[in-house]
Amino acid sequence: MILVAANLDSQVSGEYKANRECGARTRWLPQAVSVIWQEVTLAVQLHSDETAAEPGCSFSFKDLTDALNARTSIPSLPELNELMERAKISSAELRPYLGFKTGNYSRHRVMKNEFVEMLVLCWKPGQRTPIHDHNGSHGTVFIHDGILWETTFDYDTVTGLAYRAHRELRGGGLTGSEVPDIHQLGNPDVSGRDLITIHIYAPPLGVLKTYKLGSSTIDLYTPADPDFL
Question: Which residues form the domain of 15?
Answer without folding.
Answer: 2-19+29-53
